[in-house]
Amino acid sequence: MKGFDTRAVHGGREDFKAMGVHASPIDLSSTYPIPDFDEGTRSFAAWGAGEGEAPNSIYGRFHNPTVARVENAIAGLEGADACIAFASGMAAITALLLSRRAHGNHVLVVRPLYAATDGLLANGLLGFDAEYVGADEIAAKIRPDTTLVVIETPANPTCDLVDIRAVVAAAGKVPVMVDSTFATPVLQRPLELGAAYVVHSATKFLGGHGDVIAGVVCCSEELAKPLRKVRMSTGANLHPLAAFLIHRGLPTLGLRVERAQANAIEIAKRLSQHPAVAKVFYPGLGTMNNSHLVGTQMSGPGSLMAIDLKGGHAAASKVMNSVKLMVPAVSLGAVDTLIQHPAGLTHRSIPVETLGKYGITAGMLRLSVGIENVEDLWADFEQALSGL
Ligand SMILES: *Cc1c(COP(=O)(O)O)cnc(C)c1O
Q: What is the 191 CA–ligand 1 centroid distance (Å)?
């Protein structure tokens, strides 16, 4: 197999030479002519059965060649048989859950999680019985109707690491879903560690430029079939323009992730010595639970971190209002540095007591460090933290 960066540059582009193109053609067709009737009926049946390929696309909700190219590229990066792209990360997670419904109703979930995933499971909207457990309780909590184990590592917003291999061993026959959005396939490939599904909000690093909302699930061909059926039936398809943008950004994924990580390592060191900062939550500092997984499960600590400010809510508010270069915004994984307040924004729907249990305080800010010049970033931190 070719190296990661070679796959990132060339993946999903195998048909370009034959087409005589150098950039992915954006196919906006909603329907496709059926030149041969028998081939058309066979293709219709193939999409309906959840197949990944057929001679005729038939209809845009069944298949789109521009979307299929980026799916193939991402599958190649995760070492997966298949990748299925959706209109958002939440659409991907919803489809994954629905594709498991026939196997049972009980889902084991390890917190903390991206708040919308947490909410989707906790509010019972999809009819699943979600049970929140510690990673070390999984083996004891598996039931005959347990259909999925859900983990996120690094987890949002505290960057807690969960030991994927240990969870897979504890889950036994029950498939494990890893939301690997914070890690990207550059730093972590959960399928190689035994996970059944890897999920990304492609809105984040895979897109990387803050201009696309998308989600993907990578898995085996067997697990992909029901997922494609759910997508075809419920229609949360990724738009081909969005697929084009993600595909366009993939060649620089490795460069972006490595540069952002180098910046984050430096920023985390400096923040941990800043008098206004009580604690830095960053797997690269070696001070957190499971930070030994950096270098084994994850090849590096990534570029997400959280800081707890000594001055609590007032200090967090002051920093959010004073940043000049960093962008005060939710989301992450873009080329620019984003800073947000979990308690007031992304995680506000979760009860304060639950947040407190995971160390998510009113003085916490989450940073997604970008690829800017690190000294310019630090100058922005210094001025925003001054006087606290
Ligand atoms: C953003 C995000 C999601 C949801 O993805 P959307 O594209 O916003 O729907 C899920 N998990 C994690 C870890 C995320 O950061």
A: 19
Q: How many whole angstroms from 56 Cα to the centroid of ligand 1? A: 32
State whether the beta carbon of 184 lies less than 6 angstroms from ligand 1: no
Q: Does position 95 have pLDDT exceeding 90, yes or no?
A: yes
Backbone angles phi, psi at 300, to 5 degrees: -155, 170
Q: Is the CB of 114 under 6 A from ligand 1?
A: yes
Tell me how many helices (H) and strands (E) the chain has.
15, 12
Going by pLDDT thresholds of 50, 70 and 90, the confidence category of residue 350 is confident
Range 4-252 has CATH code 3.40.1280.10: no
Answer yes or no: is pLDDT of 346 > 90.
no
Which pLDDT score is estimated for 349?
85
SS (HEC) of 290-353: CHHHECCCECCCCCEEEEEECCHHHHHHHHHHHCCCCEECCCCCCCCCEEECCCCCCCCCCCHH
Q: Which two tokens stand for residue 88?
A: 């958002």
Sign of CA dihedral 23, 205, 181, 232: negative
For the entire predicted model, the pTM comes to: 0.97
Superfamily of domain 253-385 in CATH is Aspartate Aminotransferase, domain 1 (3.90.1150.10)
- Per-residue pLDDT at 178: 98
Residue boundaries of the structural domains of the chain: 4-252, 253-385
Q: Which of 370, 342, 364, 361 is nearest to 263 (CA)?
A: 370
| Chain position carrying tokens 């007032």 | 314
71 lines ligand 1 (CB under 6 A): no
Gap from CA of 368 to ligand 1 centroid (Å):
14
